Every structure is written in C-alpha cells, then in structure tokens.
Amino acid sequence: MAGVLALWLIVHGLFWGRLIYHDAWIYNFPEMFGISKGMACAGLPEWLGKIDSGTPVSIYTTSDTITNPLRLALLFFMSCLKPSVEAAVYLQKAHIFILYL
C-alpha cells in the first residue's frame, strides 16, 4: 500500500503544474469559488448572486460537493485567504487530491 501511495504522490508531484480544467469544473469550481468569496470568513452566505443571475446557496448544501467536511474546510480557508482565481483552482486541485487519497 505504501508503494502505491508513494507512486501516486510522485506522479502528482511531477505533474503539479499541469491543470486539467475539467477536473476543477467537475467539482463545481465556479460555485465553490463564488460561495467562498461570499462567506467573508464568517459562514455560508444565503445567496450566490454572480452565477445564473443568482441562486440560493441552500441548493448547493444538499449536494456532496459542499457538505463534505473537507470541502467546508476548504471553503472557510479560501474565504479567509481570499486567493486569486488561479490560486483558488490550485487549492481546489489539492483538495481533490486529498479527497481521492
């Protein structure tokens, strides 16, 4: 098991700079980035106003993509850190790797 984990880490380390945008979008990056910006390091916002003329965040809370404890930790981290879009994509990439692990 340790050998497989080591190989997995080496492969992802070597290709860290290569971003497959589909991987970010399949995990709802635009919504997650918008929610993290609306959180303001305080809690989940009630309304996500920048995508599709706005939707209530409660719609996303019924999905595994936002209620996962690791995703909530990422959202709070991003809301306090206020990363650029590019940095946020890479934070989400690291998050996806952690979930896969």
Structural summary, described in words:
Helix content is 66%, strand content 4%. With 101 residues, it is mainly alpha-helical. The chain has a two-stranded antiparallel sheet with strand order 1-2.
Order of strands, widest sheet: 1-2
How much beta, percentage-wise? Answer: under 5%
- Give helix % range: 55-70%
Tally of extended strands? Answer: 2
Write a concise keyword list for the protein shown above.
66% helix; 101 residues; two-stranded antiparallel ribbon; mainly alpha; 7 helices
Quick overview:
With 101 residues, this protein is mainly α. The protein contains seven helices and two strands. 66% of the residues lie in helices and 4% in strands.
Which helices and strands, and how do they pair?
Blueprint: H1 2-14, H2 21-26, H3 29-39, E1 47-48, E2 55-56, H4 58-61, H5 64-67, H6 69-81, H7 85-100
Antiparallel strand pairs: 1-2
Helix pairs in contact: 3-6, 6-7
